[in-house]
Design brief:
Distance between the termini of chain A: 33 Å
CATH class of one domain in chain A: Mainly Beta
Structural class of chain B: mainly beta
Strand content of chain A: over 45%
Shape of chain A: globular
Radius of gyration of chain B: 13 Å
CATH superfamily of one domain in chain A: Immunoglobulins
Largest interface: A-B, 24 and 28 residues
Number of strands of chain B: 11
Largest sheet of chain A: 6 strands, mixed
Radius of gyration of chain A: 13 Å
Distance between the termini of chain B: 40 Å
Strand content of chain B: over 45%
Number of helices of chain B: 0
Oligomer: heterodimer
Number of helices of chain A: 0
Largest sheet of chain B: 6 strands, mixed
Order of helices and strands of chain B: EEEEEEEEEEE
CATH architecture of one domain in chain A: Sandwich
Helix content of chain A: under 10%
Helix content of chain B: under 10%
Chain lengths: 115, 109
Amino acid sequence: GAGVSQSPSNKVTEKGKDVELRCDPISGHTALYWYRQSLGQGLEFLIYFQGNSAPDKSGLPSDRFSAERTGGSVSTLTIQRTQQEDSAVYLCASRGRASSYNEQFFGPGTRLTVL
Amino acid sequence: TQLLEQSPQFLSIQEGENLTVYCNSSSVFSSLQWYRQEPGEGPVLLVTVVTGGEVKKLKRLTFQFGDARKDSSLHITAAQTGDTGLYLCAGSNTDKLIFGTGTRLQVFP
């Protein structure tokens, strides 16, 4: 597709359940980012993948959060044993090699609600 | 820790008015971007500024990067209802962006 896509668009889950969120970046983009946004606030960095390098996991809030990027394309963010404070919009972004200034293209996000 | 503070946090104005949003930091950034986000969507890049003192215009929007590359402003002339949204600044020194706290703009007809 032309842009970054994310699925599902909405996810409602019960406290303690695991969830998987998917991101399809723009074709050919080597860099992929996950962010969390609470209540229409600024974005909180979670994790960054660049090509075949080890991901930068410095923003993951706890060991319940993990992410993978298979084949340098699709990425999955997994949250285990979800808690109510995990409720937020999870945004994925990708960046191409041609970007000189870290300009990122965002997907529409997945709204996660933990009951 | 690098932080970007935006002000005001909320802004509610009538169509035709002018407004300015500020983005301030104690840190120097090599580049700074402005994004606009509408409900249910991801942020969309408006502009990137890279040189201290740089001014860029995008139709009715004027963006300025401070001389010391620590702050930026966004000025909207004659606001329209279509300008409604969340405005985010984001600074970059590495491969990661540091996002500001956001300014929610509501323009009434």
